[in-house]
Amino acid sequence: MVSSLGCAKIGCKMYDYVATSGMSESGINMLELSRITRNYQRGDLIFKQASPSQELYCLRSGQVLLSHTDAFGHKTAFRVAGPREIIGFRSFFGEDDHAATAEALTNCTICLHTRPTINKLIDTCPGFARVFMRTLARDRGPADALVLRGQHVPVRTRLVYLLLIMKDRQGVKETKGNLSFELPVLRRDIAALLGARAESVTRAISELKKDGVVTIKNRTVTIPSLKRLYAETQRGAEAKAAS
Fold first, then answer.
1. Which is the CATH superfamily of the domain at 146-242?
2. Between the CA atoms of 133, 139, 143 and 144, what dihedral angle is there, to the nearest 10 degrees?
3. Residue ranges of the domains in the chain?
4. What is the largest CA-CA distance in the chain?
5. Which CATH class is domain 7-139?
6. How far is the C-alpha of 67 from the C-alpha of 78, rounded, in Å?
7. Cα gap 231→237, rounded to integer Å
8. Are 56 and 112 a contacting pair, CB within 8 Å?
9. What is the pLDDT of residues 29-79, one digit of tens each?
10. pLDDT in tens, 167-212
11. Among residues 152, 113, 144, which one has the least CA distance to residue 236?
12. Does 7-139 match 146-242 in CATH topology?
């Protein structure tokens, strides 16, 4: 269905690109009229690896898990995307099939922008193209994946990095001096994101709890001291240097 609400009103990330590109009013109207809004339930596939890439996906709400399956059938989760993030843009602009599978971790609302519309806007508005070039250049997804899955980095340290990334993307609450947020993924997904065994992740969680750094109960993460959590990353860097 085509939404009657404008990008600006719903806080769509695409509107940020439009606002900074100098796009004409006719271009904005074209984007608005072509935008499709879809709702996904937890567990739904948004797009599948090796399927044609014909749209850009802008998350309005919810969490999405991106994963890749290799030639041997091994599935590796490598990123959790949240509200106001655009996914699928690398394959879209590379004009390739999707290199990953996107699955709804929670109920999601996503705006879709089709290839004909995006290509026409890029042709008529160079500023719009430059915005996406900056997005591609600044995307930290691959860099985060290298840190999270680096076998030379202890699982405990990789887990802390992941929690820091998720903290910045989740709604953090403060109660009695503690910071807390809800994990958008299950523990088995955490193991996949870290490229570690589930047992190793469970052991790292227990160690962090014992040392008073962080507590994970059900899917709630509680951080008594953000300073101590950041100190864990330094501890990991020192352990790596000493090895």
1. Jelly Rolls (2.60.120.10)
2. -170
3. 7-139, 146-242
4. 59
5. mainly beta
6. 6
7. 10
8. yes
9. 888 888 899 999 988 999 999 999 999 999 988 888 888 887 877 777 777
10. 877 768 888 778 898 887 777 788 887 888 889 999 999 999 999 9
11. 152
12. yes
pTM: 0.69
Q: Each residue of 110-152: pLDDT tens digit?
A: 999 999 999 998 898 888 888 888 877 766 555 555 556 666 7
Stated as kind and residue range, the H or E segment containing 232 is: helix 226-242
User: 100: which DSSP letter?
Assistant: S
Q: What's the full length of the chain, in residues?
A: 243
How many CB atoms within 10 Å of residue 72? 5
Instruction: State the residue for tokens 């890439």.
Output: 53
Distances (CA, A) of 158 to 46, 63, 81, 151, 231: 27, 21, 18, 9, 13
CA-to-CA distance for 201 and 195, rounded, in angstroms? Answer: 10
Contact indicator for 28, 18 with CB cutoff of 8 Å: yes
